[in-house]
């Protein structure tokens, strides 16, 4: 409870900083997750998926921002599969669970 970290005022050097123009430089396979009730909605995750060359995006529909707690079993399956190298034949994959 208390203020969302998205509403806290950002000062100085981080105020205009963005990583978006550098996402194409990431050359390792990335895992991106978000939840159906997450403050980080699909509209915010889509640019990451589009700009990172090798990426896996899993959306966990029953979670907010703590899928590791809210959908622990499914989240661990996703992360475990990612770490084991499941579905390595595709450069991009988006899965809605």
State the helix count: 3
Q: What does the main sheet amount to?
A: 3 strands, parallel
> What general form does the structure show?
globular
* Helix and strand sequence: EHEHHE
The low-confidence runs, each spanning 5 or more residues with pLDDT under 50, are none
Mean pLDDT across all amino acids:
83
Q: For the record, give the distance between the C-alpha atoms at the N and C termini, rounded to a whole number.
A: 28 Å
Which structural class matches the secondary elements? alpha/beta
Major β-sheet strand ordering: 1-2-3
**Global Rg:** 15 Å
Beta-strand residue fraction = 15-25%
> What portion of residues is helical?
25-40%
Kindly state the number of beta strands. Answer: 3
InterPro entries: AB_hydrolase_fold
What does this structure look like?
By secondary structure, the protein is of the alpha/beta class. A three-stranded parallel sheet has the order 1-2-3, with helices on both faces. The protein has a domain of 67 residues. The model has no long low-confidence stretch (mean pLDDT 83). 28% of the residues lie in helices and 18% in strands. Strand 1, helix 1 and strand 2 form a beta-alpha-beta unit.
């Amino acid at each position: 409870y208390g203020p969302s970290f998205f509403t806290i005022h950002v000062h100085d050097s981080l105020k205009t900083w963005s990583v978006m123009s550098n996402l194409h430089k990431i050359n390792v396979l990335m895992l991106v997750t978000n939840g159906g009730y997450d403050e980080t909605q699909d509209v915010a995750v889509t640019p990451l998926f589009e700009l990172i060359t090798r990426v896996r995006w899993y959306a966990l529909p029953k979670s907010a921002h703590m899928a590791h707690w809210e959908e622990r079993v499914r989240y661990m399956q996703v992360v475990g599969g990612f770490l084991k190298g499941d579905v390595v034949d595709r450069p991009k994959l988006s899965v809605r669970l």
